[in-house]
Each structure stands twice: as structure tokens, then as C-alpha cells.
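Aim 2 progress update. The chain analyzed this quarter is reproduced below.
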Amino acid sequence: MYIVTEGIKSRYEYEKLARVFFPDQKMNEREADDPAALRIEVRRRETLISSLLRLGDWEAYDEVTVEAPLAEDKNTCELTAAQLLCRQFTRLTGFNPPWGLLTGIRPMKLLRMLTRDYGETEADRRFREDYLVSDRKLALGRRTVQNEDRILALSRDNSFSLYLSVPFCPSRCSYCSFVSQSIEHAAKLIPQYVELLVKEIEVTAGIARSLGLRLESVYMGGGTPTTLSAEQLETVLSAVTRYFDVSGIHEFTVEAGRPDTITPEKLAAIRRSGVGRVSINPQTLNDELLSAIGRRHTAAQVYEAMGMARAAGFENINMDLIAGLQGDTIESYRRTVDEVMALHPESVTVHVLAMKRAAGLVTGHLAEYNAEGALAAEMLDYGEQTLTACGYEPYYLYRQSGMVGNLENVGWSRPGSEGVYNVFIMDETHTILAVGGGAVTKLKQPGVNHIERIFNFKYPYEYISRFDEMIDRKKGIIAFYDQFC
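Predicted C-alpha cells:
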């Protein structure tokens, strides 16, 4: 698919919008049989903005007149062109994206910013009329922002959260896009990885202490942290409590993740280390689907893992689900949601399948693509109704590129059991100091929307072999705070 713009320099936003409707299409690659698959013309004839779309044999032309004073406004012209393009694509495909023109990861951050600047009524109008967001998604967003705000109020200018990365998994799930290594190939690296991770924790804690930073939350993710042994988990987690001041934190979470990695010994080690919240992630309770997506566990092991976690004393447990898995049905998904509700987790995070690369979603397969999106939307609707009826509230929301149906991921929680780290990182509220393979430190300048990043090496063998070089990068944390604070 090739995009040509006239009168507007950048076409990046139009390319992102096109991917909402055609997630598998490569942008800016002319095809031999269709050298101009997509063409946008934005002409400034006084107050006229026009959009011409060609896709194969299909062609549509639209234009709109903007009031003269606004016609000189570049932002208004670009927004109007995007609206025209979105409506044309909707006519072509029959798909009306529920988030309209919004293609970014953090729509709640935008809603909060607009509310702060213009008030709730005007912010809602802009979401509906300017960005073409559906009433249902706006209502969900408004609920989410209200719950997020209570958590964001916990943060201060000197606040930070800590992320611990354990990039190992028992096997790789078919839908996964995270940096992780199967222990079948990387088990021999784990002992040295743990040793160096503890060293990085010590160095990072020293930097935070020297800068007078205040720790708000700790999150261990991956990968699957419980791929580590009980002894290794306790070694890493006790290093956190030894080197960092955790006396005032609001949350310490370990993403236990795969039920087939959870044992009473590991849960006891996690609990002894001061962790109060764990996540047990079935994704689905359909055994056939679990096998199809590469999850080497059964629904029965999910129930067993939940029982072990309760027996270990955990009173704050999250469970992750995925809507839109290929081969799932609405009946199967409803059963999963109902059975998860019967387990009474304190929070449930509902993800939508994000396609790493869709197969065959070209013009001839639009009906199939739209059907998948409609099914995922029906799944989300059922989850929203059921979770709300059971007393859960949405407390954070984010989106990914290539999501089936252009939908969203939502964290639901009973009041008081929210995963505060999730809110902090999605809102980019404060600094995230990150340790481990693939971890990214995000340095937030207080009071402004400015972030700088320090990247760790992605893969465990790089993390180990270039550890000293990576530790040297941590000096950038001090340089950042010396510059801005």
C-alpha cells in the first residue's frame, strides 16, 4: 500500500490509520499491479480539503469545507483529512473502528490531558466528534480515568517504580511478542543471569538512594519469573528488599504467569520476600486452545495454582485473559470468564489478541477479518458486563498495534486491589528504573511530558557477556537528574 500526500508533509499518521483497516499491509511499497493503492490529496483552496482514495478498482472522493480562519490551521487540516480517510475506509470495508482515529497506545492519557485543558464536556465532545471514538469506548474510558486518577495521586515528583525482568519461559506462546527465551535453550544461562541481576539491583538501588528517589511500586515480569527455582526467586527478591527502601511501597507484584511453573515452594519463597500480589495467567480455560497457542498447561492446573496461591497467603491475585484467540468461540470465552469469576481473583486483565503479522488479510479477506473483530468485540462486551456485575471496575487501559478489531486491553479490579504499577507505567507518571535483560529504564522529568530511555541488552547471553558495558549506561540516570532536577 502506498500513500501520497499533497499539502501535508507527514504521512505517518495516515499510514497508522490505514493499518487499522489493513493490519498486514506494508506501507510505502508500490505494488506492480497497483502502483498507487492509496492516494490522499490535501489541497488548500481557500477552505477546501479533499481526499481521494484508490484501492484496486475501488475509488472514492470526498471533500469538506472548513471555516476560513481554521483553514490556515495545519492541525485542523490534517485532522479533517484523517476523518475523511477513516470514513472512506469504513465505507470500503464495512468496519467502523471503535477508537476512531486514535492509534496510540495511551488513549486515557489523551483523555486526561483534554479534560485538564478544556473540561470534561469539551474533552468528551472532542473524543466523539473530532477523533470519532464510539460512545461505548468513551464511557469505558471515562470510568477508567476516574479510577486511574486516584492511583496517580499517590505519585510525587521524586517518585519512581522498579521493574525486574526475567526473560525466560518454559515455552514460547504463539502470540507472544515479548523478549523471552525458552528454558529448553537457555537454562544453562539462568544461574549467571540471577547472579548478575542481583548486582544490577544493588547498583540501581545505590543510584536511587543517592538521588533521594522514593520507591512506589515493584513489579517482576518477563517472560515468566516463576521459571526460576524457589531459591533463585528468593535470591532476587530478597535483594530488592535488602538494597531498596520498600517501607513505603504501595505494591510488590510478581507475575507468576504460567500455572505449570507454580509450586508451593516458589509461592512460599515469593511470600517470604515481601511480595503481596501475584498474577496467574490462564489466557483461556479451554484446553484445546491452550494446546493450540503453545501453553503447556491445562485448565485444571490453573485451578490448582490458584488454590496453592491462596494457601500461601496471597490475598491479591490477578488473572490474565485473551479475547480473540484464533479458534475461540463466544461460548468458550463466556465459559472462561464465568469460571474465572468463580475463582474470585481480586483483579482480571482482559487482553485482545495483537497480531504479530496477520496472514492473508488483504482486500479479498475483509469479511473474514471483520468477523474476527466483531467476535472479539462481542467477547469484550460480555467480559465488561460480567466483570461490572461482579463488582470490578476498569482501572487502566492501553492499546497495541495490530489488535484484532482495533480494540483495547483493560485491567479490571475490585476497589483497593488495583495493580498500581500498571497505572504508573501506562500513564508515564514517574520514572521507571528497570533491571534485567530487555528492561528499559524510563526517566521522567517532573512536571513535563519528557521521557528519556536507557536500554538494557535484550537477550540473556548479551546481558551476561556485556554486563559491565550495560551497567556503565546506568550513569545516565544521574546525568538526567542532574540536568532536570
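The chain has a mean pLDDT of 89. The CA atoms of residues 127 and 256 lie 37 Å apart. These observations will guide the mutagenesis experiments scheduled for the next reporting period.
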